[in-house]
Automatic annotation (TrEMBL):
The keyword Lipid metabolism does not apply. This is Aldo/keto reductase. Residues 13-307 form the NADP-dependent oxidoreductase domain. Keywords: Oxidoreductase. It comes from the Bacteria. It comes from Megasphaera hominis. InterPro entries: Aldo-Keto_reductase, NAD(P)_OxRdtase_dom_sf, NADP_OxRdtase_dom. It holds the Pfam family Aldo_ket_red. Gene3D superfamilies: NADP-dependent oxidoreductase domain.
Amino acid sequence: MNTRTIGKLTVSEIGMGCMGFSHGYGAVPPEAYSIDAIRAAYDYGCTFFDTAETYGREQFYPGHNEELVGKALKDIRKNIVLATKLHITTEEYIPSEPVYNILRSHLDASLKRLQTDYIDLYYWHRVNEDIPLQDVAAAMGRLIREGLIRGWGLSQVPVQTLRIAQDITPLTAVQNLYSMVERDCEDELIPYCQEQHIGLVAFSPIASGLLSGKVTADTKFTGDDVRKFVPQLSQENIKGNQPIVDLLAGWAKRKNCTSAQICLAWMLKKYPHVIPIPGSKNKERILENLKASEVVLTDAEFAELQQGLDACQVYGHRGIDESQQRSFSRNWRKE
């Protein structure tokens, strides 16, 4: 697989979101299956794996996904780029004490679960508005200098937030929602990231399955499945977005691939510093997504596809400006 550079890190041009093995998409597969799927992704050529300390609610426990990823990748740790995220609660923040102590405590726990002595990319998993961003950015800089992390990032933030953090400790990446039906990043954030050499790690690049054509108005989401709350996946909006799904199906037939692969190929063609990290708990789907790297759009094909997308109205919008106080995830935790 081709590689891309974000900050000082070299990663496969398509990464792998591992959350679904622990929660978020209904019933999870057995541990042995999950580990085999992660290793199959590596065998194909994926070197960029994404997890978080909070992945593992409901059926399991926070930290479950990190433990699973650690088991799967410990023998090939030096060959891969590992990203995880921390979540800081307001209750654990004491203004009179260094924020670094909080980060170090979370990081030490993640290192143990992941069976490693460093993290390549460490994100703040949604900004907590009760905690100064400047203090977190400075603490991340100290962790980099100490060799405990190689780079840091933020998630679901607008360009204004990036600028504040970038002035204190240069960012490696921002992990934001980005897909054919969620394109807020294109307005200001992507140009800024290109200028500052910050990678955009795109989560949900297939719009939680909508753009694959496999989700219909009759699809039922149960349990802890976060798709119950994805705006584009309400019955009304699925119907409204059908012209986009049909457009992709036509392109998939034309290019002898899948609709999901067209989505990822479009993203790779459009920006050189964007790395999609589709997530799935299904080994077949994981390998299908990675094989999008084999789908090549010519300049003329890309322009035609882009024109077709621009002619379609998008129904349902989530956006990228989310904090712990204003978060999509808060909605589904109340369920």
